[in-house]
Amino acid sequence: MLDKVVFFLHVIRAGSLSVAAKQYGISPSAGSRWLNELEENMGVSLVKRTTRKISPTQAGQRLFDRFNQIHSQINEVFDEVQNLSHEDRGTIRIASTPLFAKHYLATIIGEYVQIHPDINFLVIETAFDVDHTHEVDFAVRANATYRGFQDKDSLLVKRTLLQEPLIACCSPSYIEQFGEPIYPLDLKQHLCLYATTLVGGNKWIFELNGESSSVDIPQTVEADDSEILRNIAIAGGGIAYLPYCLIGKEIALGKLVPILTNYATSQFELSLYFKPRRHMPTRCANFKEYLIKRTPEIDLERKKGIAHANGKPLTQLA
Q1: Residue 299 phi/psi, 5° resolution?
Q2: Residues contacting 38, CB < 8 A, separation 6+
Q3: Radius of gyration, alpha carbons of the chain
Q4: 211-216/119-125 β-pairing
């Protein structure tokens, strides 16, 4: 019964029996049988099934609300008991933006599994938020911050990993064809590329002499992966607003040109999020410290490589 109730929690969170079955590691047919058996044992209908989504009945919502809290407490007990061994073993689940996953996390995990061979990783590469409480141990999100920025309320713990300016840029061929914007409002007359999940959509912030300008740029191309936007900008498809870590090499090689350089811009921020735990598992606590330590080191190595290619001091590029 307990296994079936926990599976029921997965179904309600996912809104899909097949997705929940995949998360739980059973077949959809077995999941459907479990759900039917749970309803039969409890003598009440727990879910409403449509072709698109599964949602809870009144009884199902009550079971979810009450047992969801109990399930979290059970997991805390498991973590507390596992920590008594003080061993690094088990699975770490981490969701990450594509940018961080490719340029930082891949290296960090590659190093870590050599040191801790009994640790397994499940990596979810996504530009969107995930349910940290139930699906992953850690998540890395990208945000755009600016003067006066207020982070939204969250029950999660946040640790900032990297911060650097966002840079408006385009290819030399784009400037030849469409000209270069001189003021932020000029962007309204240009082709612009943006990632909703990276910089808060089509609202770009510029500051000059303490005065901020917020520009709702026109939509030309929207994508979840900022590297796609970089490549479109290189091909002459428009103006992008991207972090230096992603475009520094292309600027050094002359493939992209910074514009509106006399304006201060929003800050690109990569942050690590995790739920507060009274007893964080040893495997998670140790990996968290390693990730926080290695991320700025890898970033410095990347910038040194860009500086070497460009022949400029590092301080002029950061």
Answers
A1: -65, -40
A2: 1, 4, 5, 8, 46
A3: 24
A4: unpaired
- The DSSP secondary structure of 180-226, one letter per residue, reads --SSGGGGGGS-EEE-HHHHTTTEEEEEETTEEEEEEPPPSEE-S-H
pLDDT digit string, tens, across residues 134-159: 578 898 988 777 665 555 555 678 89
Contact assessment for residue 144 and residue 268, using Cβ atoms and an 8 Å cutoff: yes
**Per-residue pLDDT tens for 251-302?**
988 999 999 999 888 788 889 998 876 667 888 889 999 999 999 999 888 7
191 neighbors 220 (Cβ within 8 angstroms): yes
CA distances from 66 to 59, 63, 73, 274 (A): 11, 5, 12, 23
- What is the spatial distance between Cα 202 and Cα 193, in angstroms, rounded to a whole number? 9
The Cα diameter of the chain in Å comes to: 74
Beta strands in 97-176 (DSSP E): 119-125, 138-145, 157-170
The three-point CA angle 200-159-199 to 5° equals 10
**Token pair for 172:** 């030399």
User: Any residues with CB less than 8 A from the CB of 77 and at least 6 apart, and which?
Assistant: none
Please tell me the distance from the alpha carbon of residue 135 to that of residue 170, in angstroms, as a whole number: 38
Identify the residue whose tokens are 């514009």: 259
